[in-house]
Specification:
CATH superfamily of the largest domain: Thiamin diphosphate (ThDP)-binding fold, Pyr/PP domains
Number of strands: 20
CATH topology of the largest domain: Rossmann fold
Structural class: alpha/beta
Helix content: 25-40%
Number of domains: 3
Strand content: 15-25%
Oligomer: single chain
Number of helices: 23
Largest sheet: 6 strands, parallel
Length: 607
């Protein structure tokens, strides 16, 4: 991956119809086969990169993508999908993921499901067994004889759209469906599976000329529903009548300036979901904290109890378990005004709370709301609002690194000292980072709270670096790093990626969670120690190990100075309890009632 191609992917986004390193005379680019036509059409829709793992069954697709797109070859299909998801969120562009038949498809499913639950725009292209050979025991056969085709090759729970392309005649209609999906509001994950024989078949019909407008915003499309002005007027009436607060989510990430303007104009305190860190400046006096997993729920609850706002304006969040833990203390007396692009979201998390639902893009809604907002002066809130963030410890000492001291060093050196995108892995890494790091800008912090798969950040960080054309940092646990990481891929591409590994030899969220549930010692969550700096060097990257807090500054400086991938292996104090904030309490829907010799886990009975 060259610096030019990084800049191309991470630069300003224009309507598709651009040139690249693949540009050749039009006569040479004229597609003649299905594979070539698909790749060229995806390029015209704004796709510039394809991420995946090769295989014989999709050799023609692989070659076509290599002709028209920048191809990054990964070591595992799931990692490619995680990286594609993060590349989309940083760049605003759709990304192609490609796999071969059989295990190539099943391996990628966790990653594409994460993409769909996060709201990314991905096109998965896979191979399929050619018709004459189905049911005959082919190598890595993909067909109705070997897989549940109604789940993976039709629109439904896995994909927004899916099809097996059985003839070249289908390609024009499939391309139009993809273009419409990429243009629509919110996320879109499509799956096109093409039999081997069809990939190389000649095109029988002219392909439509399709372009898709993209923008790096919350919805990024022109087809989103308009704002009902009567609903806006009703919202103004309700919000100006009595004090209110704002609860911002990931869906508000493209509307940060308008959110700030509304909060300051109305004197409305703001809390946010973990995925929305930075959408509202965390150093602002109106900010009362991140709610949910790893957040500052205590300060948010304190505000609700001490100031008792009549309503809460919810902007672009499902208010699901990772964001709210369904805490009734966060429900105001007057209920919610809930704005979301998805009409099925409002009222689901808190079904018994009064909810006034508005289907709209958050940015469009806020623009209309601000236009209709009265110009009357605003009373400032008093007394001072609860402050959400704990104090940062000063790193120092020769013992194992305290995780919150590591976060303090990351804050100074990375969050405040660079413009790098920061990703936090599922597990304790997520809770330490969400609780202690502070962001003043949107879209600099990424976590996956919906599917929450381990390895998402460890591999997704490659996509973040690719998408922005610059440094990206992943804060990961050693368990996730061992499960799914792409250090060797980053070394191959020369991507400016930094992994900061919280190395404690445990699945520590599980370890500490078992202790919190009074089940310590009944399940082994430890594993042999790993030297990740040595592992990085063995994979073609660079690395260093930090064994005490005295070495944090030098280690981070070395990592940030590296032009290519770098793994910073930090030996942390495993006994420091992570700020999970309600997760373990939420698991107490079951309790141990008896213990038996020979069982590694207690028998469970419902309360």
């Amino acid at each position: 991956m060259t610096a030019d191609s990084l800049a191309e992917f991470g630069g300003d986004l224009l309507e598709a119809d651009h040139t690249s390193d693949h540009s050749t005379p039009a006569t040479a680019l004229a597609p003649t086969t299905v594979a070539d036509g698909l790749a060229a059409s995806l390029r015209s829709m704004g796709v510039s990169h394809a991420l995946g793992v090769c295989g014989g069954a999709q050799a023609l697709l692989w070659a076509a993508f290599s002709k028209h797109l920048d191809v990054l070859h990964f070591r595992h299909e799931c990692g490619a999908a995680f990286a594609a998801t993060e590349a989309h969120f940083v760049s605003g562009r759709p990304v192609v993921v490609f796999t071969t038949t059989g295990p190539g498809i099943t391996n990628v499913l966790t990653g594409t499901l994460a993409a769909r639950s996060e709201g990314a725009k991905l096109v998965l292209v896979t191979a399929y067994q050619s018709a004459p050979f189905r049911g005959r025991g082919g190598i890595q056969e993909t067909s109705s004889y070997t897989m549940p085709t109604s789940a993976m090759f039709e629109a439904g729970a896995w994909f927004d759209d899916a099809v097996v392309l059985e003839t070249p005649d289908q390609l024009p209609q499939v391309l139009r469906r993809i273009a419409a999906g990429l243009q629509r509001a919110g996320g879109y994950v499509a799956h096109i599976s093409i039999p081997n024989a069809v990939q190389g078949a000649p095109l029988t019909k002219p392909l439509p000329t399709l372009t898709v407008q993209h923008a790096n915003s919350a919805s990024g499309v022109s087809s989103r529903p308009g704002v009902n002005r009567a609903a806006v007027a009703r919202c103004v009436e309700m919000l100006t009548a009595e004090p209110f607060a704002i609860w911002a989510g990931f869906g508000a990430r493209g509307a940060a300036p308008a959110l700030l303007k509304l909060a300051e104009r109305a004197g409305a305190p703001v809390m946010c979901s973990p995925r929305a860190k930075g959408v509202f400046p965390e150093d602002h006096p109106l900010f009362i904290g991140v709610t949910g997993m790893g957040g500052h729920t205590a300060s948010a609850v304190a505000y609700m109890q001490e100031h008792a706002p009549h309503r809460v304006l919810v902007l672009g969040t499902r208010l699901g378990e990772p964001t709210s833990f369904w805490n009734p203390a966060l429900v105001p007396d007057g209920g919610f005004i809930h704005v979301d692009i998805d009409s099925t979201v409002p009222g689901v998390a808190y079904p018994h709370a009064e909810t006034y639902a508005v289907q709209a893009d958050v940015g469009d809604f806020l623009a209309e709301l601000l236009d209709a907002w009265p110009a009357a002066a605003v009373e400032t809130l008093a007394p001072a609002l609860p402050r959400p963030h704990p104090s940062h410890p000063v790193p120092g000492g020769s013992g194992r690194v305290r995780p919150h001291a590591l976060m303090s060093a990351i804050q100074r050196n990375i969050v405040d000292g660079t413009d790098a995108v920061v990703l936090a892995e599922s597990g304790n890494s997520f809770t330490w980072a969400t609780h202690y790091l502070r962001f003043a800008q949107p879209q600099r912090y990424r976590v996956s709270t919906n599917l929450g798969s381990m390895g998402h950040a460890a591999t997704g960080v490659l996509g973040a670096a690719l998408g922005r054309g610059g440094k990206a940092v992943a804060i990961v646990g050693d368990g996730a790093m061992l499960m799914n990481m792409e250090v060797n891929t980053a070394a191959k591409q020369g991507l400016p990626v930094v992994w900061i590994v919280l190395n404690d030899g445990r699945y520590n969220m599980c370890y500490q969670g078992m202790a919190a549930l009074d089940m310590a010692g009944f399940a082994d969550a430890t594993f042999p120690p790993t030297d990740f700096a040595m592992l990085a060097r063995a994979m073609g990257a660079d690395g260093a190990r930090v064994e005490s807090e005295n070495g944090l500054e030098a280690g981070l400086a070395q990592a940030l100075a590296a032009s290519g991938p770098f793994v910073l292996d930090v030996l942390i104090d495993a006994d420091q309890v992570a700020p999970t904030n309600g997760r373990n309490e939420g698991l107490r829907v079951a309790r141990p009632v008896q213990r038996h010799e020979g069982f590694s886990f207690p028998v469970i009975a419902a309360n």
